[in-house]
Amino acid sequence: xxxxxxxxxxxxxxxxxxxxxxxxxxxxxxxxxxxxxxxxxxxxxxxxxxxxxxxxxxxxxxxxxxxxxxxxxxxxxxxxxxxxxxxxxxxxxxxxxxxxxxxxxxxxxxxxxxxxxxxxxxxxxxxxxxxxxxxxxxxxxxxxxxxxxxxxxxxxxxxxxxxxxxxxxxxxxxxxxxxxxxxxxxxxxxxxxxxxxxxxxxxxxxxxxxxxxxxxxxxxxxxxxxxxxxxxxxxxxxxxxxxxxxxxxxxxxxxxxxxxxxxxxxxxxxxxxxxxxxxxxxxxxxxxxxxxxxxxxxxxxxxxxxxxxxxxxxxxxxxxxxxxxxxxxxxxxxxxxxxxxxxxxxxxxxxxxxxxxxxxxxxxxxxxxxxxxxxxxxxxxxxxxxxxxxxxxxxxxxxxxxxxxxxxxxxxxxxxxxxxxxxxxxxxxxxxxxxxxxxxxxxxxxxxxxxxxxxxxxxxxxxxxxxxxxxxxxxxxxxxxxxxxxxxxxxxxxxxxxxxxxxxxxxxxxxxxxxxxxxxxxxxxxxxxxxxxxxxxxxxxxxxxxxxxxxxxxxxxxxxxxxxxxxxxxxxxxxxxxxxxxxxxxxxxxxxxxxxxxxxxxxxxxxxxxxxxxxxxxxxxxxxxxxxxxxxxxxxxxxxxxxxxxxxxxxxxxxxxxxxxxxxxxxxxxxxxxxxxxxxxxxxxxxxxxxxxxxxxxxxxxxxxxxxxxxxxxxxxxxxxxxxxxxxxxxxxxxxxxxxxxxxxxxxxxxxxxxxxxxxxxxxxxxxxxxxxxxxxxxxxxxxxxxxxxxxxxxxxxxxxxxxxxxxx
Length: 809
Description:
This protein has about 800 residues and is of the alpha/beta class. Helices cover about 35% and strands about 25% of the residues. It has 24 helices and 31 strands. The strands form six sheets. Strands 1-2-3-11-18-17-14-16-15 form a nine-stranded mixed β-sheet, with helices on both faces. A seven-stranded parallel β-sheet has the order 6-7-5-8-9-4-10, sandwiched between helices. A hairpin with a 2-residue loop joins strand 23 (about 580) and strand 24 (about 585-590). Helix 9 (about 235-250) runs parallel beside helix 16. The protein is globular, with a radius of gyration of 27 Å. The chain starts with a strand and ends with a helix.
């Protein structure tokens, strides 16, 4: 490993070391020594094993690791012989002289009629993989059509802009979404050849009225699924079944479209694409595009000894504050930079903070710092994007609105304020930095979160490591049942459909229940939707859990502010709750779960609220069990009963002002879980006596929930858990981690499959945290219904030691 050194900020620095120069500037801004070792990736693209442990050094130095990623040369190839000259010339006019090797490989599969997924890095040109074969077919066959699906309207709009720049107007690309006027929809249905839309529009408008779209569907040659890694969990399961519905209806009209999927780098992309589409899909993963070198810095804000948080836990300097200061330093240095933050309010606050710092040094730079987030008008977004690309803007604080679809790359630096949840998303954001001539800087600033703590101390878990798996479960009965109803309303379901398209025996069992409930009717030819009823698609929310939505309404004006999921409403919009909406504060007056309405009024209280709840997990069925001496591991079906019983009002510093009881109905969740039990004797052998058992298990449960997203693309809010010193169904100390969605979303199943690696990472995150008794960076949870009491940090490490030794025995 080569040991490079960062030059002093005012010393001579080569342009090829631009990332190191910027890191030195950021370090100097923190008031610490900018001379630190830089790790180099080995020939295999991974860090050496001996660099796994965290560095012990100055506790006030927030830089935990810095790794230099070398540049990569591109591999250009010739245009394929089958590409029409006018299409090739159109690409050359917009600056694409030749395709990269992965673009040509993916396009070749698609042109030959083979379903393909391309999973390569940010700014690698994945769009050309589907644009080239689709434009070729639409040029050669004037009747052919294509459908492009993206998770957001903004992404479809960016794709339309890129297609129009090619100048092939006779191909008539057009967007179809909820904002499209009715008269334009009629024109699109009759004349559109390449329609750019989203799953919601396909579900609610096109498929329920497929007879009106028969001309388009009959000639459908390609279905493009862009950013397919976003289709995971419950939403992904709905989209998987929606694609099956689309292909079934297209087949009814005689079409057999080829599917082309584009994804960020994910684990096992072919396997995931097969689960999403229900068809065999080939994967293209070897990136042939060039990549600039980058220096990746892993940054842990220091503890603030003058402050304490909940239950006396230490407090770190907020990641948003660190990022705002870094953004200002980089702007002063003249570096074009992005700071990715987690919320719209955070983006605005970070930009304002950077502007204040910059104003003290050079007031002329203040106007070159701005915020970018969802909710801006399209013309505002375009203006900001153009200003950033041209260099008129130097620093932008943004939400993940600039992560997908917007063609911005080649920046000098990217700051990621808090791990964005997945490695795939981190590299998407990091990919905005780096130019051919100048290397760039990427800084991950850790939040108070077990995942962030683990990653900044273990660079191999982020850099050179495989990305996470996308998890979905089209067989989830809570998803499959409404999708089967929608499919039957589109075309009667035959036994062949059930066996080959929708999952076989599981689907047939659900259909029988739907017939028994009177939702569908069974005839000799199959299952039918009663024609006297309205189409069911409008009542099926493909982005939700199936539990319905609660509308948030401002009481004085009757203005609808937004919605929250019905399952989370008792904990977030209970009477008395403080609710933030687009940076404005509201207090909830009333919550009616029967009508799905919460009434709120504007107020700026100097306190916040935290819900308190009780929970119980009942084992319904054990699907898998393995015994490892004193430890047993299970995966199966559980029934989770939760009830919000009170809320606490807390002052800004965290002190509890009072506790207010609530009378909320109990909620029952049928889902899936992974759990393990430990013999009392094994806990006693490592010094965990009975009074310590609840706190030790509770802390281990919290940290495990925080680390599961390292192995499955999800959010900790998609997962729940329970720990108890004596569970009635197991008779032993038990820790449960369960899916937070009805029927499960495949997350607990993934946790069961990688249990040892998952728990090892959990133990490391707890052990490596600098706090003494537990804090939000290791064992405290922002979603704990018990107020993070009791928690035993040292006991959690001992519990996990027992489990890991047993698993390895």
